[in-house]
Amino acid sequence: MQVQINDIKRNWDFRSDTVTKPTTGMMAAMLNAPVGDSVFGEDPTVLELESRVAKLCGKEAALFCASSTMGNQLAIRAHLHSPPESILCHAKSHIFQYESGGASLLSQAMMLPVTPSNSINLTAKDVEDNLILDNSFCHKAPTKLVALENTFSGVVMPLEDMQQIAALAHGHGIPVHLDGSRLWNASAATGISIADYVKDMDSVNLCLSKGMGCPVGALLVGSTAFIDKARHFRKVFGGGWRQAGILAAAGLYAIDNIWPTMKHSHQQARRLADGMTRMGFTLVLPVETNMVLLALDAEHKPACEKLIDMLKTEGVILGLVYEGSLRLVVHHQIDDTCIDLVLSTASKLGLSSN
Ligand SMILES: Cc1ncc(COP(=O)(O)O)c(C=O)c1O
């Protein structure tokens, strides 16, 4: 039987990098993947992906999960032991804001959101000021996990901050989990290896279905004992899967073929940001990887809304209002023609930079 694969010709959708669709090459890799029963530990492609990503992180083991939400929630469940417990995290982190209150449901843990003093990333001082160490008064839930996120809204968390926070937390016997859903982007942008980024982290979650372009999947990485525990909970949560090699094959393909294209996506985001600011739009966060967040205040909102409408007629989708800003996310299925089109359309709006 001949299988026809329809190639993705155009995916001019800036709402998120989660909109990326499998390419012909990725689909071919998936079709040809050797598979087995992954719950029995017998799927060779899943095993290959887990071992490759564990090695990439310089850690002992990895667990292929359905999504980043699952990876993060399994990490929380596997790190914690018995309530009352709390997890210190960035107040705008995905783990706190966008995982449906999972920590309270699945791990009976309280999230302690902290607003960074520099308004972007947590520093060791922010963490130190908010740790709950002394429970002698019994009103509080002691900090039993610190959760970081890199990149955060496209901004790279500096390695030194991660190292200082880990040293502080470890000094109190507290493990650190990294939501590294877009750590691929951080590494591509800075040239710092994934292994260097996660050296001091106790666990990390890496997503495959964002800029990496896979249909589903994430990898939770850590020590063998930690991953064994997480694998147990993955089964409890209904996430033990069988011939998952067809999905793992997409991940292996992405590491070799999509990850190397991220640098170009970052250059495109930079070009977009520079052009838009020259035309009078305002950035709400620095553009360091693939995200451009534009101000949607009273001055800029009409122009942003007009831009969304005008581009819609050209087949370009914009429109994710994120934390009060218009978020444009560049991914490997946005080409240079599309960036040109957004810039030329924006230039017709008459916003002035002075
Ligand atoms: C930083 C971060 N972490 C975790 C997730 C969760 O990913 P998923 O929706 O695939 O579970 C997202 C999703 O956008 C995210 O941006």
Automatic annotation (TrEMBL):
GO terms for biological process: glycine biosynthetic process; L-threonine catabolic process. Its cofactor is pyridoxal 5'-phosphate. It is an enzyme of class 4 (lyase). Residues 13-297 form the Aromatic amino acid beta-eliminating lyase/threonine aldolase domain. The modification N6-(pyridoxal phosphate)lysine is found at residue 210. It holds the Pfam family Beta_elim_lyase. InterPro entries: ArAA_b-elim_lyase/Thr_aldolase, Low_specificity_L-TA-like, PyrdxlP-dep_Trfase, PyrdxlP-dep_Trfase_major, PyrdxlP-dep_Trfase_small. GO terms for molecular function: L-allo-threonine aldolase activity. CDD domains: TA_like. Keywords: Lyase, Pyridoxal phosphate. NCBIfam families: GntG_guanitoxin. This is Threonine aldolase. It comes from Coemansia brasiliensis. The gene is GLY1.
